[in-house]
From TrEMBL:
Gene3D superfamilies associated with the record: Fumarylacetoacetase-like, C-terminal domain
Domain of life: Bacteria
GO molecular function: hydrolase activity
Residues of the Fumarylacetoacetase-like C-terminal domain: 43-248
Keyword set, alphabetical order: Hydrolase, Metal-binding
Protein name as catalogued: Fumarylacetoacetate hydrolase family protein
SUPFAM superfamilies documented for this protein: FAH
Protein family membership: Belongs to the FAH family.
Pfam families named in the record: FAA_hydrolase
InterPro entries: FAH, Fumarylacetoacetase-like_C, Fumarylacetoacetase_C_sf, HPA_isomer/decarb_N
Upper classification of the organism: Bacteria, Bacillati, Bacillota, Bacilli, Bacillales
Length: 259
């Protein structure tokens, strides 16, 4: 499923990533000729400290004030609607900043109202998967909501399409790469998650309801690469696709998307 030229396409879409061609029915179109919009419409939730290396990187600091122990429950935050951005759109770099952290994240799109879902039932509630870039201004604290750093306009490119749940038999075994200007900057895998996709959704829905169209980012790996003005960022998740954007210094917010 994908959204382009103002329409949500629900029929089968065939994608040739190497040739950047999209076939819908009998019509094949170069992807750069389509105005691809974000394929999601609900609330986007991010997850902190869900990669083993991310938690290990904190070292002894995780045992210091204010919490003095590793988290016992998922740490969530919201990427509000102003952050949602298109595939191939620009990511605004604030003039006062030198760089942005690139947050490669598997995005799980919810297919129906999910409340107190058991781990065994989770897949019945997943519509599908897409690619997200959980962009943030570099910061070190994980103890305070990083709203100023993570909730800027255009700080959550997502898409370009949703791959249906049935097409991804094991979301906990997907390779993730980040290329900046064609150079490999990060290589990770969802095999390194602390909470699997099923575990994470089961825990989250034990205390809050996820609705149809909501999206849960399962986490960002440790040591996120930095991108600077003019850099082209490409995040690829095996079996799902690639999300590409360019970082550009700008005074103005990105244009409002039709969601």
């Amino acid at each position: 499923m994908m959204r382009y030229n103002g329409q949500l396409i629900l029929q089968e879409v065939l994608v040739e990533p190497t040739k950047q061609l999209i076939t819908i029915g009998e019509e094949t179109t170069p992807m750069d000729q389509l105005d691809v919009l974000p394929p999601v419409s609900g609330t986007i939730y991010g997850t902190l400290l869900n990669y083993k290396g991310e938690l290990e990187a904190l070292g002894s600091a995780i045992y210091e004030s204010p919490y003095q122990q590793p988290p016992k429950a998922p740490i969530l935050y919201i990427k509000p609607v102003n952050t949602i951005n298109n595939h191939q759109a620009t990511i605004p770099l604030p003039q006062e900043e030198d760089s942005l952290q690139i947050g490669a994240a598997l995005a799980v799109v919810i297919g129906k109202k999910a409340s107190k879902v058991s781990k065994k039932e989770v897949r019945d509630y997943i519509l599908g998967y897409t690619v997200a870039n959980d962009v943030s201004i570099p910061h070190s604290s994980v103890y305070r909501p990083a709203i100023k750093e993570k909730a800027r306009d255009g700080f959550c490119p997502i898409g370009p399409w949703i791959v249906e749940n049935e097409e991804i038999p094991n979301p906990d075994d997907l390779d993730i790469t980040v290329h900046i200007n064609g150079e490999l900057k990060q290589q990770q895998t969802t095999r390194n998650l602390i909470r699997s996709v099923d575990e994470l959704i089961a825990e989250v829905t034990s205390f809050m309801t996820l609705y149809e169209g909501d999206t849960l980012l399962i986490g960002v790996p440790e040591n996120p690469p930095l991108a600077r003005n003019g850099d082209v960022v490409k995040i690829t998740i095996a079996g799902i696709g690639s999300l590409e954007n360019q970082v550009v210094v700008t005074k103005q917010a990105v244009k409002e998307n039709t969601i």
